[in-house]
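User: Structure tokens for this complex, please. No commentary.
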Amino acid sequence: MLSESPRHEPGPEWRGRDYVLTAVVIIAAAGFCALVQGPVWNTDPALAGANLTVSVLFVFTGWMLRREPGQRGVAWALMIAGLLRSLDFVDAWSGAPWAVYDLLFGAADRVLGAYALLRYPNPSLLRHQRVYLVLLAGWMLVGRMLIMVTALPQWDGVPASSWWPSLIPDMQLNDVINYVVNAGQGLFAVALIVLLVMRLLRTTGLDRIVITPIMVAGLAAVIAAAASAVTQMLSALNGTPNGVYTVESAVDLTIPLAFLVAAMQRTLLLRNITALTAQISGGADIGAVRYALRSTLHDPTLEVLETEHGGPVLEEQPSDRLVEFIRTEEGSPIAVVIADPALARYRGLFDAAVQTSGLALKNAQLQAQAAREKLEQVRASRTRIVEAGLAERRRIERDLHDGVQQHLLGLAAQLTVAMTDTADAAAYGALAQVRDGLREVLAELRDLAHGIHPAVLSQTGLAAALEDVAERLPLPVRVTVPATRVATAVEATAYFVACEALANVVKHARAGSATVTVSVDESRLDLQIADDGVGGVTSRGHGLSNIVDRVNALDGEVTIVSPPGQGTCLEVRIPCG
Amino acid sequence: MRLAIADDSGLFRSSLTLLLKASGAEVTASRASGVELLAAIRTNPPDAVILDIRMPPSFTDEGVSTAAELRRLNPRVGILVLSTYAETSYASQLLETVPTGVGYLLKDNVTDAGTLMDSLARVADGETVIDPTIVRRLLRRNRKPSKIDALNERERTVLRHMAEGRSNLGIAKELFLSARTVEAHVTSIFLKLGLDQADTDNNRVRAVLAFLRSADAGN
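Assistant:
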């Protein structure tokens, strides 16, 4: 069914040739229609005018519809129906062949009209629709034939001398047949109403928007035709008043208008795609694209799925759905759109919407990639900054150790020599004082160097360094640290965070004991510092903000749990490896 | 006493040499790295050597590796590591590598010629000497339960003095106890740590090691 519809809608742009051709077709149709109903212009100009207008509009609508994909059949049906409509009045010309023609084929335009109403905009008819149309055509042809063979020409207002295939002229039988045929026409009209309402109810999405005006106009026309049939039936003996035909023509006028409205609807829908483009072209995620496509294409069952790493997302493509892949410039699929197969009839619309969505998704991917690269750069530069800071601290510590510290120690040794050489008690006392001061300075200097960067951290690792910190504290601290070495920046950050946190414990927590626990896996280092103190730590303290800054610099996270009276637990996660 | 020095600070080396000479020792070699020192004392080993911990070429723990190498080449030479680092991890590392005739002192001890010379004499005698600052730190450490916990307060004090390298007599003097009482404590310590009663000298070292290890693994 889908394969019948052409892949692309013909381009909407009109060239000069199209305008000329259209004008020629319209003028030719108008001339033909005016000509065939010649005598009516004298007897009932209003009816003739209405007929001409309806006919020309049908032809025009059919002509325009020709351009729509898969609608050639409907287009020709409308054009022929328009011409036949005027041809119906050919019997106004005297002469039997015209009357015979009218009696036999006068209903052909209705059959064609019913065909157009039932089919548009589908590419083909459903089975029950086809059955209906065949029965209708058969009923009209056979019924009218029976009327003709049981009548004499004069009964139908045709001169008795005219050629007429009267086989068994019988006025009573003719009346009965006339009655039955007209009643049957009424029933067919009712059946058509039911079929049209069923179509309208069953149609969803874009189809519904497009066919609603046509269905409404069709229903009005069918009702008018039914009313006309009843009138003809009731007034069979007196002849039908021309006014009935005029009203019927006026109602029929709505059908080509409805088809034109439908064509306009399609144009409007295309404009919606422009709105869609504006809405998501800046880049949108799959959810936004799905929502935009569903609302633009009026298909709530539409699905957009991302293909994973360029591989096919569908194990098997659903055969009863419309499937379209969105691809990168290189041709690898990035997403797939699965939609109502009815959208195949709006291929141009559908393709435009999918193309727009593809653009949006590609833009979003590019943006995400750019953001990722930027983030990666920022991360790398932050790590470099942290590492540079660490290297600087290590350098200062080494300078202190190798320079000032050794120098002072040398002086201390010389002072000791001087003391051993000194016999004078007063001088010895003075030197002893200097020595005591020197000892204090040396201890302070050692602590200072250690505080800037503990040599043990880079040489032996986090475990030894943290145990060393724990030894210096005035409360028992249980240290559980694996011997695993991790990146220098991560080790140093964990070390300084633990020091800062333990300093806070000593200063504020009034804790009886504390624990420091580190665990390391290939992707991150977890550090936990817990105490049994007073708790109630808020995340605003200066010490804590230092910790958060250091951890954030390496893209880590800090959580603190500190209910009043129940101790404090600081947890730090730093990505590594 | 004949001594040799390896330290990458020339100023400290020369000052220390002065101090050692003033204290009556003879300095047979003074070099800037462990490797150079080992080469210098190969033919004529001293009674003890003084090593810095961080020296060329890598400036990490050359003192420890030089000590190990020296002990392998010449088991009788006493080794005293003089360090600016008060971290216990270096001391434990040293004792793991070279268990006897070795000492770890802070360089600050150059302000006390007596302690320095005494420590050198002890390591030359095969004893083990640890800086009191480090021993205090080890004692403060929060450790895993171990055999050390079975010791009572007095025994632990005696063990700490043993770790600092004192003899039974020295401990007795320090704690104002009789030598016999200290001996009883030491026996009790060995018993509680599950050490062989007969091998008194090595037991001292083992007890001290157990003490340091329990502290080192105290996490």
